[in-house]
Specification:
With 439 residues, this protein is an all-beta fold. It contains no helices and 38 strands. Strand 26 and strand 27 form a beta hairpin.
Length: 439
């Protein structure tokens, strides 16, 4: 087994735009400071109160976000490089969770009549070119956040036990299906890459069933079911939408179910007879990676990372560590997988299985994401010894790294090396766009 801390050694860090810190020594001679990631900062939203949840348009020219400087959450629209932002919701109640349509025509957002409660809510639709807002549902209800389907032609959401399709062209609203159990909560499901099929895991009687729902006509394709001792979760579509991966509980052993839509067959590539399946993720070229967690004889967590080829047969164990792996993420351009534990972020070479640390020694980390080029990794630092919070950034080609302090990552813009962050103190958060660059 590879030693998990074989490269603990000496770690240095450089804090960009915050402060510098000297290399930390752990009983070894000090090493030269690591190079610094180049960051260019572009302010996006800077109002007198919290600015949150930035959502870029597909063409990257405009941003929707949630601002609070008028006394309640409102949805704003701002064109890049232009001020001030425009309030597109403009109600005395709460408006939040904006999402752009794939064709840049609409911004859908949630509206609620009671401040800082989750439900009951409405979905509202803002047409960007005309400035017209539609109230999709006249009454408030227990609803999920909507998903865009069919390139922006339809919105899919759950209203209590019904799965609803709203047609943006005709304004017609149809019930695609109804849950057998009216007491449901959570998201509506997982859309296929083309937005044509919705995967839903639901309780039916004394078991769980996964169904694939056509988002145009509501026709149902049944996949898998489990008894009441198990559950089915982590529904993950392959990049081409032909296969669906899902994890089923740990009784009597780990099950990673793979449903092939061409053959309507399901098989289980998980290895071993113990532990549960976590962190199911597809690579851009259709390979699959997952983790299996078990407890050793000393009741300590132990995690194995598996990879299966494009034909999803003959999976191999890529690595094994004596800690929980919280997340895995395939590189969009390299044959590498990033993963994180409580201690740091690591990158594994898929061909060799060798891995080394990139973000370690700065405190607890979470939410690892790759930039569009695959050159950079971002991770959120929680309660770091050096910072209250921050975004850790690393260039995987050179090892250059930086921390953008008092900030939270809000995602890379489309397929670029530009990262949206919320920065500042609670009550006065601003939105910045960080461009990572080569010196």
């Amino acid at each position: 087994m590879l030693s998990f801390f074989r490269r603990l050694g000496v770690l240095g860090c450089v804090v960009v735009l915050v402060s510098a810190c000297a290399p930390a020594s752990i009983g070894t001679p000090a090493l030269p400071p690591l190079p610094t990631v180049c960051l260019l900062n572009e302010p996006i939203a800077q109002t007198s109160a919290d600015d949150r949840d930035p959502q870029p348009s597909v063409d990257e020219r405009r941003f929707a976000f949630v601002g609070h400087h008028e006394g309640n959450p409102e949805v704003y629209l701002i064109t890049r490089g232009m001020f001030p932002p425009h309030n597109i919701s403009n109600t005395p109640f709460d408006d939040y969770a904006p999402i752009w349509s794939p064709d840049n025509r609409f911004i859908a957002y949630m509206h609620r009549a009671q401040q800082y409660t989750h439900n009951p809510s409405q979905i509202r639709l803002y047409e960007v070119e005309t400035g017209v807002t539609r109230v999709i549902m006249p009454r408030y209800a227990n609803i999920s956040h909507p998903l865009w389907a069919q390139g922006g032609r339809a919105l899919i959401f759950r209203r209590e036990q019904d799965v609803i399709r709203y047609d943006t062209e005709t304004g017609q609203m149809d019930v695609l299906m109804s849950y057998p159990n009216p007491y449901v909560s959570g998201d509506v499901g997982t859309l296929s890459p083309d937005g044509e099929t919705l995967a839903i895991s639901m309780w039916v009687g004394r078991g769980v069933e996964v169904m694939l729902i056509n988002t145009r006509d509501g026709s149902v394709e049944h996949t898998n079911s489990a008894d009441f001792l198990n559950y089915i979760s982590l529904l993950r579509w392959s990049p081409d939408g032909t296969r669906l991966a899902m994890a089923q509980g740990s009784h009597p052993g780990p099950l990673l179910l793979l449903y092939d839509r061409h053959t309507a067959l399901t098989f289980n590539p998980a290895r071993g007879s113990r532990g549960a399946v976590f962190n199911v993720e597809w690579s851009p070229d259709g390979r699959l990676a997952w983790t299996q967690n078990i407890m050793d004889e000393h009741n300590r967590p132990h995690t194995r990372l598996f990879v299966a080829g494009a034909d999803l047969t003959h999976p191999r164990e890529l690595l094994s560590v004596e800690h929980n792996i919280d997340q895995i993420a395939w590189s969009p351009s390299r044959d590498q997988i990033a993963f994180n534990t409580y201690a740091g972020v690591y990158v594994a070479d898929v061909a060799s299985g060798l891995f080394h640390d990139f973000i370690q020694g700065w405190g607890r980390v979470s939410a690892i994401t790759w930039s569009g080029s695959g050159n950079y990794l971002a991770s959120f630092l929680i309660s770091s010894p050096r910072f209250i919070s921050g975004v850790a950034l690393v260039d995987v080609r050179t090892g250059a790294r930086a921390v953008y302090g008092r900030a939270t990552s809000r995602g890379w813009i489309n397929n670029t090396d530009q990262l949206l962050v919320e920065r500042g103190e609670r009550g006065n958060l601003d939105i910045d766009l960080l461009t990572l660059c080569d010196l």
